[in-house]
Amino acid sequence: NAGVTQTPKFQVLKTGQSMTLQCAQDMNHNSMYWYRQDPGMGLRLIYYSASEGTTDKGEVPNGYNVSRLNKREFSLRLESAAPSQTSVYFCASSRDLRETQYFGPGTRLLVL
Amino acid sequence: EDQVTQSPEALRLQEGESSSLNCSYTVSGLRGLFWYRQDPGKGPEFLFTLYSAGEEKEKERLKATLTKKESFLHITAPKPEDSATYLCAGLDSSYKLIFGSGTRLLVRP
C-alpha cells in the first residue's frame, strides 16, 4: 500500500511555463485535495474533489486548474506559472469529506 | 472568519521535559479537530481526531484534549525522535480543513 503518491518530487519552472502535478491514491478513497504550504502559513486548500466527477474551489484557486481523472488520480495544473506560485504542494485523500485526510510526500516547486 | 491559531511557534525541550502545545480555534460548526505531525521535507502524518469537548486520545507519549475553544497536545517525557512540526486543523461546517501554522518542537538529548 503506497498510500498517496505525488510526482514530481521537485520542479523548477520559468515564469510563464506550464506544468501538471500528478497525484494518485490506492486507498479507494472518494475525496481528494490539493494544498499549498508556504513558510509561516498553514496549509491552504487550492481545490478539492468530493467524489469522482466533481471538483470545487478551495481558499486559493486562482492560477490553478484541476482534473479528477478517475477515482485514483487527481492532477493540478499551472497554466502560466508565476513566482508567487513557488511553494510546496501536497495532495491528500480521504474516504469522504468528513473523514481523516492522508497526505502525500509533496512536490517542491520553484518558479523563477 | 474561521481561524486556527497555534502557540508557541517554536518550543525547545530537554529530553524528558514534559510540555503542552496549544491550538485555539474559532471554526463555525466545528466537525472535528485534527492533529498531524510533519517531519522536514515530508507530508503531514495523521495523529488524532477529536470530535467533542472533553474528549481525549492518547498515543505513546502524546495525549490530545479538546475544549470548546482550544485543543492541547500534551507531550510526556519527550524523546529526540519526537522533534517535528505539529499541525492542528479544524474541519469546518462545509467539511474544509482550516490549518494552523504549526508548532516546531525540538527535543534535545
Describe the structure.
The complex is a heterodimer of chains A (112) and B (109). Chain A contains no helices and eleven strands. Chain A has 112 residues and is mainly β. In chain A, the strands form two sheets. In chain A, strands 2, 4, 5, 6, 9, 10 and 11 form a seven-stranded mixed β-sheet that branches. Chain A starts with a strand and ends with a strand. The model of chain A has no long low-confidence stretch (mean pLDDT 96). Chain B is mainly beta and 109 residues long. Chain B has strands at 3-7, 10-14, 19-26, 32-38, 45-50, 56-59, 62-66, 70-75, 84-91, 97-99, 103-108. In chain B, strands 2, 4, 5, 9, 10 and 11 form a six-stranded mixed β-sheet that branches. In chain B, strand 4 and strand 5 (45-50) form a beta hairpin. Chain B is globular, with a radius of gyration of 13 Å. The chains are: A mainly beta (112), B mainly beta (109). At the A-B interface, strand 5 and strand 10 of A face strand 4, strand 5, strand 9 and strand 10 of B.
How is the secondary structure organized here?
The complex is a heterodimer of chains A (112) and B (109).
Chain A: E1 4-7, E2 10-13, E3 19-25, E4 31-37, E5 44-49, E6 56-57, E7 64-68, E8 74-78, E9 87-94, E10 102-103, E11 107-111
Parallel strand pairs in A: 2-11
Antiparallel strand pairs in A: 1-3, 3-8, 4-5, 4-9, 5-6, 7-8, 9-10, 9-11
Chain B: E1 3-7, E2 10-14, E3 19-26, E4 32-38, E5 45-50, E6 56-59, E7 62-66, E8 70-75, E9 84-91, E10 97-99, E11 103-108
Parallel strand pairs in B: 2-11
Antiparallel strand pairs in B: 1-3, 3-8, 4-5, 4-9, 6-7, 7-8, 9-10, 9-11
Distance between the termini of chain A: 36 Å
Biggest sheet character of chain B: 6 strands, mixed
| SSE class of chain B | mainly beta
Average pLDDT for all residues of chain A: 96
Structural class of chain A: mainly beta
Low-pLDDT runs of chain B: none
According to DSSP, the number of beta strands of chain B is 11
What is the overall pLDDT average of chain B?
96
**Largest sheet descriptor of chain A:** 7 strands, mixed
